[in-house]
Design a protein that fits this description.
8 strands, 4-stranded mixed beta sheet, 2,3-Dihydroxybiphenyl 1,2-Dioxygenase, domain 1, alpha/beta, about 20% helix
């Protein structure tokens, strides 16, 4: 079966700050892409997996604590990712907790005001 989610746009207010935050939390470089009219931060992904980007929100969209909850892969580095949230200016809303047979997660706010989940199959 193909992935049901194929791409995600994460709205931000400050692209450079968001690139630093997500690079630290993901433990991988978020790259600045685009040009004069469209600039975004490309989240690391392979050609065969779901991808996404950070983009400066316009008046029709804004960072939100109440919209969809995006789960980011923190497998093998959940503690480091959680620490990076705080050190990069984000906030932990719900500390590490189990989610049944689906593993573990941490719910956080990024530097832009978006609610995100850090996910791993184990509590490490």
């Amino acid at each position: 079966m193909s992935d049901q989610v194929v791409w995600v746009d994460i709205p931000v207010r400050d692209l450079e700050r968001a690139i630093r935050f997500y690079s630290a939390v993901l433990g991988a470089t978020v790259t600045r892409q685009g040009g004069d009219k469209l600039t975004f931060g490309l989240l690391p992904h392979s050609d065969t997996h779901v991808g996404g980007c950070l983009y400066v929100a316009d008046k029709d969209n804004a960072p939100s604590q109440t919209g969809p909850l995006i789960y980011l892969n923190a497998a093998g580095r959940l503690k480091q990712a959680s620490e990076a949230v705080v050190s990069q200016g984000g906030q932990i809303i719900q500390p590490l907790h189990p989610i049944g047979s689906y593993g573990f997660r941490v719910i956080a706010l990024d530097t832009e005001g978006n609610r995100i989940a850090l996910h791993a199959p184990t509590d490490r």
